[in-house]
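User: Predict structure, ligand zinc ion.
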Amino acid sequence: MRTGFYWDEKCFWHSGGNYALTMQVSDVVQPTPNGLPENPETKRRLKNLMDVTGLLDQLHVQSAAPATTEQLTRIHPESYLKQFKEMSDNGGGELGLRTPFAQGGYEIAALSAGMATQAIVDVMTGTYDNAYSLSRPPGHHCLPDFPNGFCLFNNIAIGTEEILANHGAERVAILDWDVHHGNGTEAIYYDRDDVLTISIHQEHNYPIDTGDVSDRGSGVGEGYNINVPLPPGCGYAAYVETLERIVIPALTDFAPDIIIVACGLDAGPFDPLAHMLVSARGFAQMTDMLMETAADLCEGKLVMVHEGGYSEAYVPFCGHAIISQLAGSNITAADPLADTLEVRQPNLRMQAFHSTLIGEMAASFGFE
Ligand code: ZN
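Assistant: Predicted complex:
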């Protein structure tokens, strides 16, 4: 496999600055060194692990140019860009909900979006078979004019619009397996039938009031948005069954030109911001299933763009398992917590009530 890998040290320099501290300081809360649960270490440790195992040497490694104003304004209004840039030039601040940024945050967010866009373009045009962009800040919560949930530009939507406008794509499928609802991407494409959006998420986590199974899209977009809200405690078996019974049938019906994954790793078992049990092995299996689906539907064109994931200990192993699978590599990073998980977390395996629930949702979408 020719697998592109996009990263940039500058993405790790994004910071919530002093504004992050205002979110947690009180009489009884000791500030944490990084300020936010979203911090560089999860991403940096993933990249470092790939360096140590040698996986990085098997990939086509690069950065990218920042997304251009033309690319950004296909999704975000000029007024938002102006406000963001001014605040970024003047020490940083907070423009939405839980998205503080420091001086220079605008340029780093544009770089993060540019990396995702380049990864999507390079796979669409055949430069690489598949790709992974270690974008930071993440993007899937970001609405056109309202940043939220650590997301400042909607990276995947910006890349999607670029291939629709300039690289021959007509139908794009976006699967969001970040454990939180992809509310920004859903909102951007809610009334469109050329972009299928699917989000698998922990129900009522973040945002607390979006991501319902009945939100199917509107107008010509009716039926082109699929939400799969799962209860806390679902293991990888429940995710695999969701892929088998809902995601793959939906992708097959849609027949996309490319599949893009909003690749959050916060459905992992040690995540502080969610309560699921998808192990590194589970992420590898899900990646394998999507690679097979992409091979059947769209010449294997598959791009993953990093989203959330907050366990410094475990995110690197999940990311390594995914990227090794994408590259068809035999280099693995032995998951140090696998035995503990398999023995102590029976929910990793299928629970009957999870299966029933997934079956009910599949039927509601017309998949038997
Ligand atoms: Zn998330």
